[in-house]
Amino acid sequence: MRQALVFDIVGVTAVIVGSTVCAISVADKRTAIHRSELPSGYRDWRLISVAHEEGNLNDIRAILGNDVAIAAFRAGKLPLPDGAIIARLAWSHVSSAENDRAFGRAQSFVAGTPTNVQFMAKDSRKYASTGGWEFAQFTGGKFVAIAAQGCLACHLPAKTRDYVFTSYSP
Amino acid sequence: MRQALVFDIVGVTAVIVGSTVCAISVADKRTAIHRSELPSGYRDWRLISVAHEEGNLNDIRAILGNDVAIAAFRAGKLPLPDGAIIARLAWSHVSSAENDRAFGRAQSFVAGTPTNVQFMAKDSRKYASTGGWEFAQFTGGKFVAIAAQGCLACHLPAKTRDYVFTSYSP
Question: Who contacts A144 (Cβ-Cβ below 8 Å, separation ≥6)?
Answer without folding.
Answer: A116, A137, A138
